[in-house]
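> forwarded from #structure-qc
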């Protein structure tokens, strides 16, 4: 089905809003629409290995543009076990046909990690001549005949939960299996639908988007997307007001927030059509877009990031328990020396003012008093 110019612009306008890209895209979209690439829709094979289907379900939640528009107008989703009607040989035959008829023209979306122990037999999908076929074999073959590979979710991007120690299945990310093809990582547990749709549309119309050193599109995971720098609870962090339990007022650092070392744009984009996002809902960021997930960047999933001395400020021992300002080695790297200095100055000034005024028992003094009582 050829996409009409009018419809394409409607869909693309939604994409622009959704991916928060600059209006510089518009002229390119116009020319792309005029050119009408091939069949008008980009063929996609969406394969699941060791996956929970959460990424596929998140994709179905696409709102701007809606998943209907995406599936009818933008991509031709030839294979996806979650939504396709066909089963058995009929379904698996679609992949075999695509690898021949659409060789080099389709996008290969991988969801889930790929087991490599026991020759990959921890995960098999379908059969050939009565023998089970491993996900490992499928991924290698489908990737070899594709235009590009998109690894969706933390599992396909980094190994994710299936690769957590002791990793008996030898679970690996797609990047460790695929060779000779461009690979884009769209991590998240699950990834936001806009990240998946936006990336696929970008590949369709312009090719591989700009990627960071972890192969993530910078438009969704760039250095300017550090959660800690875009968090509406940051004022509490800077002034040392930390939630001690769920529902408390304050920064979620002590409840294990990984925002200081995690990159994504949901603090501005929001989930579920922009209704809410992780930290605003009171659940601390778990760093689901980062390679340390679910390990926790040196701490457990819901344990706070380790506190250490601030490099270059040897005389000031920053410790979250006694000072109320939370800084770890990785945290400092994430927020930068400028932000660290700003927080320290803010805290020092605030302490002085609070002592002088002798008003109430602020958090930081309360902690000191508790220590002195011991
Ligand atoms: S530590 Fe987490 S909750 Fe606190 S300001 Fe940073 S990102 Fe927000
Ligand atoms: S804010 Fe944290 S938990 Fe939420 S999507 Fe981003 S990285 Fe994942």
């Amino acid at each position: 089905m050829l996409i009409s110019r009018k419809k394409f612009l409607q869909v693309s306008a939604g994409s622009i809003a959704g991916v928060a890209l600059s209006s510089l895209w518009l002229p390119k979209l116009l020319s792309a629409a005029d050119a009408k690439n091939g069949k008008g829709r980009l063929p996609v094979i969406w394969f699941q290995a060791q996956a929970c289907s959460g990424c596929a379900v998140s994709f179905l939640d696409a709102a701007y543009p809606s998943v209907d528009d995406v599936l009818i107008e933008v991509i031709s989703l030839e294979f996806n076990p979650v939504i396709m009607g066909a089963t058995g040989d009929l379904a698996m035959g679609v992949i075999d046909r695509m690898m021949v008829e659409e060789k080099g023209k389709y996008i290969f979306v991988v969801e889930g990690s790929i087991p490599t122990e026991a020759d990959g037999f921890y995960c098999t999908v379908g059969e050939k001549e009565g023998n089970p076929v491993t996900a490992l074999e499928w991924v290698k073959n489908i990737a070899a005949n594709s235009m590009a590979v998109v690894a969706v979710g933390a599992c396909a991007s980094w190994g994710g939960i299936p690769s957590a120690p002791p990793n008996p299945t030898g679970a690996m990310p797609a990047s460790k299996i695929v060779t000779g093809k461009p690979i884009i990582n769209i991590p998240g547990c699950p990834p936001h639908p806009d990240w998946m749709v936006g990336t696929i549309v970008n590949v369709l119309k312009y090719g591989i988007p700009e990627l960071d050193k972890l192969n993530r599109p910078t438009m969704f995971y760039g250095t300017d997307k550090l959660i800690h720098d875009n968090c509406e609870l940051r004022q509490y962090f800077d002034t040392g007001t930390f939630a001690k339990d769920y529902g408390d007022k304050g920064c979620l650092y002590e409840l294990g927030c990984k925002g200081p070392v995690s990159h994504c744009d949901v603090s501005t984009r929001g989930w579920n059509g922009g209704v809410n996002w992780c930290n605003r809902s009171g659940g601390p960021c778990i760093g689901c877009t980062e390679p340390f997930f679910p390990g926790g960047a040196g701490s457990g999933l819901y344990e706070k990031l380790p506190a250490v001395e601030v490099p270059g400020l040897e005389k000031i021992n920053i410790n979250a328990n006694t000072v109320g300002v939370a800084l770890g080695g990785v945290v400092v790297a994430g927020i930068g020396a400028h932000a660290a200095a700003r927080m320290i100055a803010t805290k020092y000034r605030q302490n002085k003012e609070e002592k002088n005024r002798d008003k109430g028992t602020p958090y930081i003094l309360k902690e000191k008093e508790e220590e002195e009582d011991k």
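QC bot note: The longest helix spans residues 329-357. Residues 227-228, 231, 233-234, 237, 251-253, 257, 259-260, 279, 285 surround iron/sulfur cluster (ligand 1) (CB under 6 Å).
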